[in-house]
Structures are given as C-alpha cells and as structure tokens.
Amino acid sequence: MRHDLLADVFSAIKNAEAVGKSETTVESSNLVKNLLDVLKEKGYIKKYDVQPKNNYHQFRVELNGRINELKVVKPRISFGKGEIIKYKFRFLPGENVGHLLVSTPKYAITTDRDIEGKEGGIIIGFVY
Predict the structure, then answer these.
(1) Chain-centre distance of CA 33, in angstroms?
(2) What is the C-alpha separation between 45 and 40, in angstroms, rounded?
(3) Cβ contacts of residue 8 below 8 Å, gap of 6+?
(4) Domain 5-63 part of CATH 3.40.50.300
(5) pTM to 2 decimal places
(6) Is the distance from CB of 86 to CB of 117 less than 8 angstroms?
(7) How far apart are the C-alpha atoms of 91 and 55, rounded to whole Å?
(8) Which fold has domain 70-127?
C-alpha cells in the first residue's frame, strides 16, 4: 500500500542510480512532474517521457548517474523569508553542493538557490 508517492518516486530513482540503470519508470502526478522538471533543469536527470497506461500515466526517467542522495523531508518543514540557510546546513553536505527542493507560493516548485532567501515556503526534499 502506498502512503507517500513522492518518497516512492525518489526511492525508485535513487535505487536505479545505485545499481547503474540508465532509466526507470515512476508513477505520475503534477507534483512529480514539477520535481522532475527541476531535476532535469539542474542536470540530475537527462529527460523524462510520459507513458500512458490503461487509466493512468507513468514517467519513464532517463538517468545520467549524477545523483548521490535524493530524499524527501518528512515532516515537511515551513521556513520564513531568511530562514532557509539553517536548513541548507542541516540537509546538504557542503556549501554549493546539492539543492533543497522547495515549494513557494510564487515559483511553485524550485530550488533554494533560485529563491535566494527572498521568500518563504516549504521544504519538500533535497538532492546532491
């Protein structure tokens, strides 16, 4: 039984990277699509395609072997305008290494570097 679609997607991608696969298939949702867009933009995956099934869709994700860690933050952490720096130290291994995946009212899904502490939001996960 599935409880957290996003955690399942991140686990599938991370496990496929760990065993050296070049692609994997994950379930779809709008949140997953937006996060895959961010991962593609930042160079962690090559591309993804939509594969229609009977009454739902899946994403076929092409990997390029750059992901060391990809995790969901649970419980989701809300942060204010200037508070994201302390969460960078908590979740990322070093300065300018990796990205916090955040949801903000203005940008929807983006990374910590794209908002540059200008607004608050919710931390969804991290990748490096």
Answers:
(1) 10
(2) 5
(3) 2, 26, 27
(4) no
(5) 0.91
(6) no
(7) 37
(8) Dna Ligase; domain 1 (3.30.1490)
Length of the chain: 128
- In the chain, where are the structural domains located? 5-63, 70-127
End-to-end alpha carbon distance in the chain: 28
Cα(48)–Cα(58) distance, integer angstroms: 10
- How confident is the prediction along the chain (128 residues), in pLDDT tens digits per residue? 578 999 999 999 999 999 999 999 999 999 999 999 999 999 999 999 999 988 889 999 999 999 999 999 999 999 998 899 999 999 999 988 999 999 999 878 999 999 877 889 999 999 99
User: How many CA atoms are closer than 13 Å to the CA of 58, on its beta-carbon side?
Assistant: 13
